[in-house]
Amino acid sequence: MHVENGLVVAHDPMGAAYRVLTLRLPTIAAKARPGQFVHLRLAMLSDAVLRRPFSIYGVDGDMLSILYKTVGRGTAAMKDIQPGATLSAMGPLGNGFPLPAAETTTVPVLVAGGYGVAPLYFLATRLPRTGLLFAGGATSADILCVDRFQALGWEVRLATDDGSLGTHGLVTAPLDSWLADARREPEFFACGPNGMLRAVGERAIAGGWKGWLSLDRHMGCGVGACLACVQTIRKDGAETLARVCKEGPIFEAREVVWE
Prior knowledge:
The protein is of the alpha/beta class. Helix content is about 20%, strand content about 35%.
């Protein structure tokens, strides 16, 4: 883990509510793995003591990008960050997704809810083979990065709550349709709301497959000291507490004890 001052290289909109922030962070970028995150200090929030966690969306050389949605005071203030500014970043943090061996026979199945697609895109650039992306959102405006996945050779299947794009309903609908006819063993990688993660995990467990879930919890320190982000997990048949920022945010489906 490193603390590094990063130069803002670009800050671009992605639709109405989403933005991509790119920073030059040579040390953090060199060590970043898919599923990890960075903790940013937002200097424009002078009364904010804590840093804000963001999944890593991509790494290109010494540059690192995050994809975020304007959902609160912190992210609303971020939209005014201009290229040339400097932000303090701590990272890379967390454990990251395990990368399957190149000779594996499983097909990677990525399941994203909204901007949960961010760490999955980074993962897609590092996996040894292409597979399928199932992406869901409230509306078509919440379906992100489809063209980028397709450019990498991934098959994409979509769902929206309002039916404006893809299947009308939850992302598990097209996922279940594919699973009904699947001829290869899937390995799941998922990031999104808890309900979606639980549903993907249940399918992985029922099928006897691996399911890697990226949990999202409110974080304070980001390094495991404050215990603000604990999650009950099951290890060796016993329940215990794990820190999502430290032992996570990635957990195998069989480990997670849902409230």
